[in-house]
What does this fold into?
Amino acid sequence: MTSKTMRGNPLSMRNSFAPDGKWGIPLVKKQELSTDDIMLVACSDTKMNDNEINKKEGVHFFVDDYRFSGIYDNSDSSLKRYSQYAFLLTPDFSTYVDMDLWRQLESVAKNRWVGAYWHGKGRTVIPTISWSDARSFEFCFDGVEQGGTVTVGMIVCKSSRIGFMRGYNEMLECLQPDKIIVFGTPFPEMKGNIVSVDYQSSRKVVR
It folds into this structure.
């Protein structure tokens, strides 16, 4: 593929979606989603041609990155697997404090690009929000339309409660979400319209 051809290929340039913020991160627009009796299935527990019970659930990516690393580079083939489910959370690419900032920025941008791509294909998409320390606040809330539903995970935040809450409160101020789907047990001090999803129940896949 020539350089001219690559510049005209949206999947090569990754610039086919409305940009947001200083870094031009793709914007994931807010969508309506009923959170009554919401259920999630881990991406690692999905399969092609799943049964009708599992298809009523949403897909989450609160697992190790290697389990879903291919969804950015192979966006078409991965969508075939996930599009059968009721809705999709954007992939939770890691933003660890000890990662260089360019890696964290890349993780956020890939999270939003995949979400915008899925939305463009007609899927219901809910953005997953993650952050590290205050340095990441410059970009980690970009690419998400204000006033919609968002998701945060509680799996690895127990060891840094103060840092987590600082980012969570910043997220509330920046995004003003209508609902927050919390994967795991929320801290009592977390404010907002929280919808809690139990971690263990998300692994009870009907086969």
User: Anything to note?
Assistant: The longest strand covers residues 149-153. Residues 101-120 form the longest helix (20 residues). The mean pLDDT is 89. The chain is about 30% helix and 15% strand.
